[in-house]
## 1
Amino acid sequence: MLGVVIVLKGFVEFVGLLLLAQGLVFLMSFGRHESNPVYRLIRFLASPVTRLVRRVAPRFVVDRHVPALAFVLLFWIWVALAVAKLRLQMPTG
């Protein structure tokens, strides 16, 4: 079980870093992010998570805010996985 938690935590960290990189490239491209190949690659890699969050999120959430919402949700999932990892590593008894 500990191995599954570690792998899931690593996956959440990877996707979180992708979303963080996407935001940074967005800020640094000064409005030309759609023509930036690095931005498009990062957006492609993070798109499964953002699509899932779009399906789960209420309709009033604007599409451009979905990556930020995905990052916040991934942060809380990461916190829960870190707590689970710590609890699984604690000796029993």
## 2
Amino acid sequence: MPLSLAEIERQVSQLTLEERTRLISFLIATLEPSDEADIEAAWEAEVSARSKEIQEGSVAPVPADDALARVRRSLLSSSYR
């Protein structure tokens, strides 16, 4: 009998950051045409590399709200030049 969505969610919540990242890549790949395999492989490699950098502490993640605020400030300041 297939697992329920609730059971899958419970199990996924127990995965490591790297495992969840790989799962996300896999799920996205299942939604897209298979002729984009090279692009998906490149994205998976990028995601894995960035995940490893975060886990090793060589980079610090930036909350999305902060990142978007930085982009907005940058765009606004460059539009007045």
